[in-house]
Amino acid sequence: MKLPCHGAAALLVPILLCAAAQAGAQTSGGINGSLGDVIKVPITTPCPAQSVVQKYTLMVDGDNTGITAQGCSGDPNTVSFLLSRTTDTPASANTAAWHRLTGFPWQGNGSSLVRELPVGVADANGNAVGAPNATLKFLWSPVWRIAVAALVAIATVALFIYLGATTALLRDVGAETTVPFRSRTFSLARTQMAWWTAVIVVSYVFEWVALGAIPSLSGQALVLMGIYSVLGMTSRGVDLSRRTAFPATTPHFFADLTSDEGGVAVHRLQMLIFTVVVGLMFLYQVFTTCSMPAFDANTLALLGISGATYIGFKTTEAQPKPESATTTAGVSLDGLKSGYSTGDAQS
């Protein structure tokens, strides 16, 4: 356990130092604010009636954020806005503005943490009413939230690696066997469930850091977890129905995930590739837009078909009888896969 802890500390220290240095660059000039703050943007005309000003929207670098004004707060030359996003995925008309505020990679004045952005105000018809040359110095996230997010992300990954190496978390269970977990093969279905759990936890925490509020969990994340949970349960059912035992060879992580008793299997390799690729796409979308992706129906169907193909091949794999079929503790061994040792199923 010392190695994951040391690794987490080594990664966290430079993150904090960099964040502190960049956050310290924020100056008192211009309009300072971060998500959750109320900012006051100057306008060129006196503040109109409340019913009119509440239709004003905040512009960032020429793009509309969709944030409506709260009022003038007693100052006739400024309009107040609450920097907040009400939905996880902004409307398409507001995506560009929110990417400038919270997305990556960052390009422009300032730094990735303290961003200098031209801001303005638009009326209900989209006409500019804001003062020219107004600049928002937007603090992407406080240092303490970045530290917490980094700790949670590192701890999540380290936990799965540690438990995967020292427990039966990612191992096949088999049927009616007392084989020690270190002698069991690694399970593709269980590994995929762990992968998506880690992806969603890291994404959820990252959104919390960027938005400054608890984000809504997208329907896509729930569908993906559902697909791989059903896949894991179905895989377990197949093992039980076929009385799956374990080979005498030492388990190897990637070999176990991609191979069956006949060697590298295309249905396993296909399932693994699709899972990793879609997972990386999920993370990229979260890191660059601070919103969980909305995959189209065809992408979800692809994962579903890949999972069904995996289960289908797993169910119909050829399992010739061992040369000397015997029984152990009244359990028939006729269903063992080719190359599996009957001795490993004994207590």
Features:
Immunoglobulin-like, 45% helix, single chain, alpha+beta, 7-stranded mixed sheet, 2 domains, 347 residues, 9 helices
Summarize the structure.
The protein has 347 residues and is an alpha+beta fold.
Description:
This protein has about 350 residues and is of the alpha+beta class. It has two domains: about 30-140, Immunoglobulin-like, CATH 2.60.40; about 170-345, no CATH class. Helix content is about 45%, strand content about 15%. The protein contains nine helices and eleven strands. It is elongated. Keywords: Membrane, Signal, Transmembrane, Transmembrane helix.
Low-pLDDT parts are 7-28, 319-347
- E-strand count: 11
Q: Tell me the domain tally.
A: 2
Mean pLDDT: 78
Number of helices: 9
What profile does the largest beta sheet have?
A: 7 strands, mixed
Order of helices and strands: HEEHEEEHEEHHHHEEHHEE
Q: Approximately how much helix is present in the residues?
A: 40-55%
How large, in whole angstroms, is the Cα Rg?
Answer: 27 Å
User: How would you sum up the global shape?
Assistant: elongated
Question: Strand fraction band?
Answer: 5-15%
Distance between the termini: 30 Å
Instruction: Give me the side-by-side strand order of the main sheet.
Output: 1-7-6-3-4-5-2
Q: Which structural class best describes the helix and strand composition?
A: alpha+beta
